[in-house]
Amino acid sequence: MGDVTNAQKIEFVSNLKGTHVANIYLLYIPWAALCMLRGFVHLLIDNSSFRVSGFASFNLDFILTVLPLIFTITSLFESLLTVCILSSILFLGISVSLWKRKKDQFPRSAPSLADLTTLGSDFCATTRATLNILTAIAILAVDFHVFPRELAKAEWYGTGLMDVGTGCFIFCNAMVSRIARGKESDLPAYGRVMNAAKSSFYLIIIGFARFFALFTTGYHTHVGEYGVHWNFFLTLSVVNILSAVLFSLFSLRGCGVIALVLCVVHQGLLSMGLSNFMQFANNRSNIVLANLEGIVSSVGYLILSVFGAAFGRLVFQRFMHASSLTRDVLITAFLSTSAFTICFLLQQVTEPICRATANVPYVFWLTSYCIFFVLLPQIVHLPVINFCPELSPVFNCKCQLCAKGHLSQCWCIFPNVNKNQLLFFLLANILTGATNLSIDTFVTDNMTALLVLSAYMYILCLIFVLYPKIKPRSLFQSNKNKHANAD
Fold this sequence. Notes:
The protein has helices spanning about 5-10, 20-25, 30-45, 55-70, 80-100, 120-140, 165-175, 190-215, 230-250, 250-280, 285-290, 290-320, 325-350, 360-385, 400-405, 415-420, 420-440, 445-470, 480. It is mainly alpha-helical.
């Protein structure tokens, strides 16, 4: 790529202000309706004489869930409110249909509500997979004109869709970590930290490999995101090790107290001049200053990891039973609203949300946002649990096979992505780079861009549906790496 093209591409993703924070929440309302639609279509198929193959089921999943997400964050964004209204109507229509047909056509060999004891973990799994899929779409879509500029990463202050990626990844991994699930390790503190360091070693290798790959190919990068050499994988490794130290030395409650102290210290330093220095000094004379965004933001992401583990503990202790789903929805909505209220108040007395420094308003916004994302599948399940509880897995982007843990036999997209999160994101980065090196995304028209995005996501999802059938276990499976904490 020539220097002019590189300069244009960097400018294309620079000096952006983001969008209204409400739009970031609204973007995911259509996804809730899509989950409902996906479950309903599979339900109709299961209760008919028509049978579909595994590959056909995969294609159906892609058309009903992934493909609409591509259009929602690209060409349909300008009509987001209309899309949300139509999605709400769809949700209500399917709910009414479930209510009308529950006695006549649906199978009634249903478990009792007390038997549905994995709902909390199912909600977390669906949330993590969806965020990964959306991130994979966005990291390529941002290079096309079809992707709205207000959804790209804000230059400093502001909220764009792409500002949530790293934070959501860390929060959601902490949410299902061993400490969140209350599973204590038999290893001493030193052993747990060393295990975290070993798992982080691969992240560090990937991080440096990514830097050298970008450097040698001349691929366009914006240093305002993490710094000159820093990237997403290095942030994960740092947070992994630091959270391992915290969780090894203190209880989850003690870590929560330390996280609040870190909030005061972190935001205090930013407000006393560090934020202005990072924004305006433009001094990258040594390795620390060159990567100041990545180093400073790691503190905020560490706090976010603790908050994620605390919320996960609540999920696994109290949100696992369908019989208490209505209460759980109210609690989740309260927590999300409370975190957003704190974020709003902090912005009045400190500074606006800033992803580059992961300041405390950003931390509480991401906490609210991730909890909101768990709230959506809970809301989807309200009519399902009330009218046909035996069909809960179908409406959680699963089939009966993967609900029983047989991923190697199922063709569902979301459970397979959830099981291999880091590998999914790594391959998405590789395919994104290959696409950018193959075509000039800067001059690609919108129709072609949508076709490229659809083909890219189709290949990516198909690989991970086929992956367990070829190699069931992976070094990068999210349940092995514990990206956001240590045993």
